[in-house]
Amino acid sequence: MKGNLLGNRYKIIDKIGGGGMAVVYKARCLLLNRNVAIKVLRPEFVQDEELVKRFKFEAQSAASLSHPNIVPIYDVGSEDGNYYIVMEYVDGITLKEYIRSKGALDWEEAVKIAIQICSAMEHAHKNKIIHRDIKPQNILLTNDGIAKVADFGIARAATASTITMAGNTIGSVHYFSPEQARGGYTDDKSDLYSLGIVLYEMATGKVPFEADTPVAVAMMQVQKQPQDPMHLKRDIPEALNDLIMKAIRKDPGTRYQSASEMLSDLYQVLVEPNGRFVKRIKGDDDLPTKKMQAVDIPIAIDPKSDKNNERKNEEVYYDDEKDVKKSHFGLWFAIIASMLIIGAVVYIGINFVIPSLNDDANKFTVDNYVKQDIEIVKQELTAKKINVTENRVFNESIQKGIIISQDVTPGQELKLDGYNTIVFDVSDGPETLRVPDLQNKEERLAEIDLKEKGFSVTVVDEYNDTVAKGSVIRTTPSFDVDVKPGSDVTVFRSLGPEVKQVNVPDLTGKTMKEALDILQASNLTMGTVYPKDTTSEIATIKSQSPLPNTLADANSPVDIYMENYGTTGKIVDLSVVLTNPGDYGNTIKLYIESISSDTLVPQPILDKPSVDKGLFPVKFSITVPINGSTKVRVFLDDKLFSESTYM
Question: Are residues 156 and 173 in the same domain?
Answer without folding.
Answer: yes
